[in-house]
Design brief:
It is a single chain. The chain has 4 domains: 9-73, Winged helix-like DNA-binding domain superfamily/Winged helix DNA-binding domain (Arc Repressor Mutant, subunit A); 87-127; 130-197, Arc Repressor Mutant, subunit A (Orthogonal Bundle); 203-270, no CATH class. Helix content is 63%, strand content 12%. It has 9 helices and 6 strands. Strand 1 and strand 2 (68-72) form a beta hairpin. Helix 2 packs across helix 3 and helix 6 crosses helix 7. The chain starts with 8 loop residues before the first helix and ends in an 11-residue tail after the last helix. This is Meiotic nuclear division protein 1 homolog. It comes from Darwinula stevensoni.
């Protein structure tokens, strides 16, 4: 026959508390080591650990009187201890619920924020291109075509090739003209717009000195830039003249006289 299984720690604790509350007296450890085995079946060797665990949990009181330590536990003590534990648990539960509510509020705010962002994104998609995107596409269109256009022509061409709605073409073109990114001029009764590609200035040094026939010639970077700009404008003028001749069958001499273009106008040497 197998040996009878001993008491668990929790059973010993319960029996020890019951013993003390039944006796309602004060005991030294050595007294409990004799009394507990006899009345509650708690082996003497475990009494010290059981008592200490109960003291640590506040279920048993202890105090040193003289040179001796006494232990006791009255029924009201146990009730008060349980009440305090219940209060602690209740307070902890309240704290947890409060934190849970705060987290829920934060989550709700995050959901609202995300929903707002999604809505704004959808609305921005419906709105179409921004003004800056329209400007970039319009300049690209004109530089790709390298031709001269009236407003009504751009209002047909821009939606088809660059996705710019016709109603916004006028404002886009005007903003580009104001910023100097698109050229415009009135020829007869019509206004034409154009923008030819401009090429970057080569990386000339700030100054170049050339010794020729004992004369030092100074070329500044700014002068070089100005010359190239003047030559680009001459390109534009010649392109306009060529376009006018072909489109309106106007003699070049008439054009020169009409717009004050010198007959001997030519490119500047770079």
């Amino acid at each position: 026959m197998s040996r009878k299984k001993g008491l668990s720690l929790e059973e010993k604790r319960e029996r020890m508390v019951t013993l003390l509350q039944e006796k309602q007296d004060f005991f030294q450890l050595k007294e409990l080591e004799k009394l507990a085995p006899k009345e509650k079946g708690i082996i003497a060797q475990s009494v010290k650990d059981v008592i200490q665990s109960l003291v640590d949990d506040g279920l048993v009181e202890s105090d040193k009187i003289g040179t001796s330590v006494y232990f006791w536990s009255f029924p009201t003590k146990a009730a008060n201890t349980k009440k305090r534990k219940l209060e602690d648990v209740t307070n902890s539960l309240a704290d947890i619920q409060q934190k849970r509510q705060k987290l829920k509020d934060v989550l709700d705010q995050a959901k609202v924020h995300v929903a707002s962002l999604v809505l704004k994104r959808r609305m921005s998609r419906k709105k179409g291109l921004s003004l800056e995107e329209k400007r970039e596409r319009m300049v690209t269109l004109l530089q790709e075509k390298q031709d001269f256009f009236q407003l009504k022509e751009l209002e047909k061409l821009a939606p088809k090739e660059k996705g710019i709605i016709a109603q916004s073409v006028k404002d886009v073109i005007q903003s580009l003209v104001d910023d100097g990114l698109v050229e415009s001029d009135k020829i007869g009764t019509s206004v034409y717009f154009w923008s030819f590609p401009t090429y970057g200035v080569p990386p000339f040094p700030l100054s170049i000195f050339v010794l020729a026939d004992d004369v030092i010639i100074f070329y500044s970077w700014e002068v070089q830039v100005a010359r190239e700009a003047a030559n680009r404008w001459l390109d534009n003028i010649l392109s306009v003249k060529s376009w006018c001749r072909n489109r309106f069958n106007i003699d070049e001499a008439v054009l020169n006289k009409q717009f004050g273009i010198p007959e001997d106008m030519d490119y500047l040497d770079t």
